[in-house]
Design a protein that fits this description.
seven-stranded mixed β-sheet, alpha/beta, single chain, six-stranded mixed β-sheet
């Protein structure tokens, strides 16, 4: 656990990341709070925070409202508020975040996916038209093209000087940002997969998922879980195959991203597939015993490349699978998953390796 001395807070990443790899706050959080401290003192409940990955800002501004797409991001927020003696904050859904009363200040940590930022600014323009908006991020992650777009469309634009490699932008008047939600998608094997902004791989099929689908077992039976489902491509492909072969399979899909869950549910409904889609961190919301787990784990958390999320997924799979249950994993070749899997499973077979991806089939 790390101590944020500027705010006298003890904070921790979730899933846990060593402090020398990543801290729950950065210089952009410091810079932002230096500028808006007076807001918390004058009217603490009129602030909405978006994309606060580990809840650092929500702990520093304890009366503000906060929304984060990640399920474990809200767990980080809850854990960090508890350890600092702050009251519990119920999780806001995406829709609830943009229907609050009396919001006049919006704080946005600039997300890696700039389509998501565009969508959030559109929602702010529609639902909080008079709000003052603060955008914060590390300068290396904020391209000039994004700054130009913001300046050209906001009625009021102020770019503060870079401090400690952090950038801060103040906006007001977002009428030009208002637009319909930019649904995007692709077709694969007679399936149409759509997704809202903020969902990984929404414009085209992820290359790892494409490789995994080539090795999807033809004899899947029982209860199958698509772990880290994204837009639902693996779960829908399983449901499609079972429908074509008249095989009875119970398909569960789960993802840490609320926006991914919304998209996967919509895709399943549109195709008429009976898929149980759940929002949770790894298998936190899956209590059933599983026959198969299909996993294309993320290896980035924001801008950082990490293996801690995959590690949690693999450990959860060992607990959830029945005896002799199977885990199928696709991974970029450079990722050190083989020794991680060997420690957890009685048998790990490399069933495919090409120039970019490995496919591991693991037996509990």
């Amino acid at each position: 656990m790390a101590h944020w001395s500027a705010r006298d807070l003890k904070l921790e990443c979730f899933p846990i990341v060593p402090s020398h790899v990543s801290l729950p706050w950065d210089a952009a959080d410091d810079y932002l709070l230096e500028q808006i401290d007076l807001l918390e003192e004058s009217n603490p409940t009129d602030i909405l925070i978006l994309n606060d990955r580990y809840g650092a800002l929500a702990c520093a501004l304890p009366s503000a409202h906060s929304w984060v797409d990640s399920f474990c991001g809200h767990q980080a927020l809850s854990h960090n508020r508890q350890r600092n003696g702050l009251s519990f904050q119920p999780r806001l859904t995406h829709d609830q975040a943009f229907t609050l009363e009396g919001i006049s200040h919006i704080v946005i940590r600039i997300p890696k996916d700039h389509d998501l930022l565009r969508e959030q600014l559109s929602q702010v323009g529609q639902n909080y038209p008079d709000a003052e908006v603060w955008l914060a991020g590390m300068a290396k992650h904020v391209p000039v093209s994004l700054l130009n777009w913001l300046e050209n469309n906001a009625e009021q634009y102020q770019q503060l000087p870079i401090q400690r490699k952090a950038r801060l932008i103040k906006l007001a008047g977002l009428k030009k940002f208002i637009q319909p939600t930019a649904i995007a998608g692709y077709s694969y094997n007679k399936l149409k997969l759509n997704a809202v902004p903020g969902v990984f791989g929404r414009h085209q099929i992820d290359l790892g998922a494409r490789v995994m689908l080539q090795y999807l077992p033809q004899d899947l039976q029982g209860r199958v879980c698509d772990l880290g489902c994204g837009n639902g491509i693996l779960a829908l492909s399983v449901a499609q195959h079972c429908l074509q072969t008249n095989t009875l399979v119970n398909v569960i899909a789960t993802d840490d991203s609320e926006l991914a869950v919304i998209s996967a549910k919509d895709n399943a409904l549109r195709h008429g597939f009976d898929i149980d889609v759940r929002h949770g961190h790894s298998l936190s919301e899956v209590s059933e015993t599983l026959d198969w787990v299909l996993c294309n784990p993320p290896f980035h958390d924001g801008h950082k490349q990490l293996t801690n999320i995959a590690d949690v997924m693999f450990k959860d799979a060992t607990r959830a699978l029945k005896q002799d249950g199977q885990l199928l994993v696709v991974a970029n070749r450079h990722l050190p998953y083989f020794p991680m899997l060997k420690r957890l499973f009685s048998r790990v077979d490399l069933i495919s390796d090409d120039k970019r991806f490995n496919i591991y089939q693991c037996q509990r």
